[in-house]
Amino acid sequence: MPDSRRAERRPPLHRRPALPLVLAVLLQPPAAPQLEAQTRERVRVHGLVDAEHWNTDSGSRLLTRNEGDPAGAGRLRLWGAADVVAGLQGFALGEVEAGNGSDEEQTEVELEQAFLRYDFPGAARLRLDVGKILVPFGNFGHRSLSSINPLVGRPAGYDVAYPVGAVLGGKLSRVDWRLAVLDSPQVNQDYVPDADAALRPAASLGVTPAIGVRLAAYHTQGPYLGRGVGAALPAGSGWRDFDQQIFGLELALSRGYFELNGDLAFSRYEVPTRERDSRGRAWYLEPKYTWTPRFFTALRLEYDDYPFILPISSSLWIADNAAFYDVEVAAGWRFSPDLLLKAAYRWDHWRVDDHDFFPDGNSFALQVSYEFDVNSLFEQPR
User: Fold this and answer.
1) Would you say 218 and 138 are in contact if contact means Cβ atoms under 8 Å apart?
2) Could you say which of 2.40.160.10, 3.40.30.10, 3.40.640.10, 3.40.50.300 is the CATH number of the domain covering 110-377?
3) pLDDT, tens only, 170-184
4) H/E stretch holding 41
């Protein structure tokens, strides 16, 4: 089984011209005397810097970093928004990440998001996003930045993904909805073969029965394999012939100083050479309590029973589940609205027959995050 640490380190992507092209189109310069004032109004850029220290054991397939030796990581994210015309905006988010240690010595550059957004006029509050976007369903994706995530780690069930696609959503009274077409599946990349682009629909429906409470359901279905498994497919079949299906539920609750987030997902995979579909289940609950304006604590309890799918030959595919519990506890202190320090301890427990191959593990992490407004760095003092 592949090392699950790869899920914490997204593979580097080549630098793409999308961001310069988008900004070049969006930012047509006005007349010189008005340039500075109009640029401040039309373009907003923010940044987030993370510095992390990790101390883990050497055996866990989920938590181990740097073979158990101390490891560090640094990360810079920059995101911007620009107004084009009334109702139309452009967004982009880029990341640079570097780390030390035997398996962390690399610098990764990724354009995570680059899309256009149009807000339609009217009471229905329709919104259309087109481009490279954050996956539009699930409870954690929109909370994954370190300045929002109350812990240091991420849920292990499904990776935070940035597919290319289009999302149309709206809200009317207490009901919100989204319809999407995406080019990639939502998976844990350590458990299934690499996927290639294929259109797949997705939909979500949410309701806010009371202030501070939101319940939602989502569904997506489509191909999850890629061309790399072509030689291992049964004769007469192609990689697009095998579907993955996910049905999930989301929970978000806020009462005073208490917050609770959760997600439950059921998955089904059509696996070559297997008569029965392979099924999985993943859930987590994440309570947080803010004790003072500066101090908070949080916990995430997670359970994954996820199919591990691996091609051996055109007549034999492995499709066995690996199940584990995962608990993370953290405390955070805000030195200022922009500067945050978090300390977290995480522990996993595997429930598989061959437990020697899946030893329990633990990790300790420190994370410092600083968020800043790039525009303010260039403003003239008044």
Assistant:
1) yes
2) 2.40.160.10
3) 999 999 999 999 999
4) helix 35-42
